[in-house]
Amino acid sequence: MGISLKTLHNLHAKVVVKLLFIVALFVVYGCATIQKHIAVRNCKFELESVKVDSMSLTGLTLVVELLAKNPNSFDAGANSLALDMYVNNSKTARVVFPKFYIKPSESTKLISKVEISYGDLLSAGNSLIKTGKANYRLEGFVRIETLIGSFDFPVAVYKNKEG
To answer: What is the pTM of this model?
Structure first.
């Protein structure tokens, strides 16, 4: 009284079909997720503002606001955005923005707080006093994490401000 060969074959075929269906779901989900995340490469980032949030004996806490624009016809998103902030060509801080998503053809504000020591501001301050200008440059990468690994895409944001 064993299982017939035909029954075993049918059972095997059903298992294979179910496995192929599961794999297909992962591929479709993975491709959609990757598309959403890779779309962030086309996004435009603008420096909206850099404001003093608080002061201490050792430095300042700044609030950095970026405007992120998604020109795509589908969602864009990233796991993080990490940028080195330069003031008048002096590296002053590393600004990290958390996970974000932007709807198609829309914009969103990204906000992060960063602490900067007075020592790091010293060389930028000397240049500011001499020229009367604050040139902000943020350079770094936007990171996306997918089922197949992490990807980093370069980002650069510039803004000049008369003192």
So the answer is: 0.71
